[in-house]
Write a structure and sequence with these properties.
The chain is of the alpha+beta class. The chain contains 2 helices and 5 strands; from the N terminus they run βαββββα.
């Protein structure tokens, strides 16, 4: 594995850009990807990830339920400084919950 710098792609109208604070490693899912298990894409190179938390940096024109500055859990994101995700892949996290515990907590959709 290696750390690769990549340009941030343009945000789509139905996406939210989140600056990540913590990401969670899912041992089973990521091991399956690395070992090219039959239930994975089996295409390399690939970006791994599961979920994590951060703050909304930018929103697309169609986004209604999130605003810049919101703290969110990103489901099915990547281990990266930033994640672009559709609104349905985000859950707002309580403002009083530290980032590290909220990155691995189970959240109910609003």
């Amino acid at each position: 594995a290696e750390l690769v710098e990549a340009e941030l792609r343009e945000l789509k109208e139905n996406e939210v850009l989140t600056e990540m604070e913590y990401t969670v490693v899912s041992g089973g899912t990521e091991r399956a990807c690395i070992m090219s298990s039959k239930n994975t894409s089996q295409h390399f190179p690939m970006s791994l990830g599961y979920c994590g938390v951060g703050r909304v940096e930018k929103i697309g024109a169609e986004i209604k339920n999130f605003a810049v500055g919101d703290r969110v859990l990103v489901y099915h994101g990547f281990h990266a400084s930033y994640n672009c995700a559709k609104e349905e892949k985000l859950t707002r996290t309580p403002g009083t919950m530290p980032f590290r515990p909220s990155s691995s907590s189970r959240q109910k959709a609003p």
